[in-house]
Amino acid sequence: MNPFYILRLTSVIQIVVSAFMIIPAGIAAYYGETVEFYSFLGTIFLIWIFAAFYIYFTRKAPNRVLSSRDGFFFVTSSWILAAGFGALPVYFSGAIPSYTDAYFEIMSGFTTTGASILTNIEALPRSMLFWRSLTHWLGGMGIVVLVVALIPLLGVGGTKLVGAESPGPSVDKFTPKIRNNALILWIIYLGLSVLETILLMIGGMDLFDASTHTFGTMATGGFSPKAASVGHYNSAYIDAIITIFMVLAGCNFALYFKAFRGKIGEVIRDGEFKVYIGLFLIVSVLIAANLFLSGDYESPGKAFRFSSFQTASIITTTGYATADFELWPNFSKVLLFFLMFIGGCSGSTGGGIKVIRIVTMAKVAMNNIKYMLHPRGVFNLKVGKNTIRKEVVYTISGFFALYIFTILGTTIIVSTCGADIETSLTAALATVGNIGPGFGKIGPSENYFFFPAYVKWFLSLAMMAGRLELFTVFALLTPQFWKK
User: Fold this and answer.
1) What is the pLDDT of residue 154?
2) pTM for this one?
3) What does the pLDDT read at residue 462?
4) Which of 256, 14, 317 is nearest to 144 (CA)?
5) Residue 265, exposed/middle/buried by CB under 10 A (0-12, 13-18, 19+)?
6) Torsion sign over Cα 257, 223, 76, 345
7) What is the predicted pLDDT for the residue at 155?
8) Terminal CA-to-CA distance of the chain, rounded, Å?
């Protein structure tokens, strides 16, 4: 590795993060939030000092093509520092007086987890609520992906960086240059965000609420400036708009590029997309039927409104809520728990294992059964019309094993503070899968405040590991990584 060159690139990432802090600083100035305004300015100044120091003292470090090892270290350190600096204005202002809690909240924002320690969300200054939601939007498509798109400095070796940060077993490359790839993804992301904001304002939200909820929707994050989340508005129109855009955000963004180029047929035939949409519709209908028949809602239409919203929220790992699903019948809760293991599509902003991995492992199991019945048979492994290469299957199998071990390990760590098994397990699923709410003491009407500091720090790292698809972070923990 070339640590000096990596430090210089990491400084560039932090400068980009500080540039976005200017927006909530302006909001603080507009609303007369003096303490918050100076908290943002002070943090921006500290970041610039940090960046200037490292850029100056690493000015002689030669530019080089980044290796996979460089990419893993750079991406992981960038996210740790982004959350560290991002928590400072929240901490300096006193909005969250504990730095541990502030770091947890902002790491939850950047990783689009949506797990919160706040017990009185609406008491926070508007500038802090906006920054909290804006971290979602930045982390949704990826901080590093944004910088690769905007700054040619990172064009060399950019594929390694995007691969280390992007969700999914492989990176869809639909243009020859990775910088153009990243730029197109961000343009699509921005365009959908603007469209959703406009539609939410048509539904009665003001610009502040519409933009913050858009950040949470498109990033599949789930932070809301309202304590009751989206349920605060009690609007079928708003529920429908956010449900649609949650589903859109859970799709592979490469499909939108194909659709814009007129390749609608390829989009419709995409194997992962069909399974994802099918799961969403089937589970939504099953939960709606269960809710209506159990008498929770008086009409099938209303039952479907709430079931489809919560199904989209969980499968895309967004974490928004319009109802306390812990009060729903057990069958509905089991279906939502099942969705916690799945997540959105690869190349989406969603967390979780990803649909393509679930489908691939299911097909591997079916092929093994076929081999047992027909030992001399030759069976290709396909998802849709795409043949899955053997090395991709090995990678997915490794990810599955690592994911399960991470969930189990996190469950054990959380349980050491005395949390019950339901809370411990779903806290692990909700943080590693970047979902946010779980069951038990971290249900949709609860939060993570009661956990002791060491659990919050561990869960912060679990959120980051989940967002970076585990391998990127766990590679740093192996002795082989540090050998020359």
Assistant:
1) 47
2) 0.90
3) 95
4) 14
5) exposed
6) negative
7) 45
8) 8
Please answer whether residues 136 and 116 qualify as being in contact, where contact means their C-beta atoms are separated by less than 8 angstroms.
no
Sign of the dihedral defined by the CA atoms of residues 366, 369, 370, 371, in that order? positive
- The two most distant CA atoms of the chain are separated, in Å, by 75
Taking phi first (over 0 means left), then psi (-120 to 50 degrees means alpha), and beta for anything else, what does residue 404 get? Answer: alpha
DSSP 477: G
Measured CA to CA in angstroms, residue 477 lies from 33, 72, 73, 295, 327 at distances of: 42, 11, 11, 51, 41
On the CB side of 263, how many CA atoms lie within 13 Å of its CA? 11
For tokens 């020359």, name the residue: 484
Residues in the chain where the model's pLDDT stays below 50: 154-156, 160, 165
pLDDT digits (tens, 9 = 90+) for 259-291: 888 888 888 888 889 999 999 999 999 999 999
Q: What pLDDT is attached to residue 281?
A: 97
Q: At 68, which amino acid appears?
A: S
pLDDT of residue 480: 83
> Residue 244: is it exposed, middle or buried by C-beta count within 10 angstroms (0-12/13-18/19+)?
middle
In this structure, what token pair is assigned to residue 119? 């017990």
pLDDT of residue 304: 96
| Residue whose structure tokens are 């999914």 | 168
Three-state SS for 81? helix
Helix (H/G/I), strand (E/B), else coil: 188 = helix
DSSP state of 251: S
DSSP 263-326: -HHHHHH-HHHHHHHHHHHHHHHHHHHHHHHTTSSSSHHHHHHHHHHHHHHHHTT----SS-GG
How many Cβ atoms sit within 10 Å of the Cβ of residue 256? Answer: 20
Alpha-carbon distances of 37 from 24, 43, 194, 223, 248, rounded to whole Å = 8, 10, 26, 22, 35
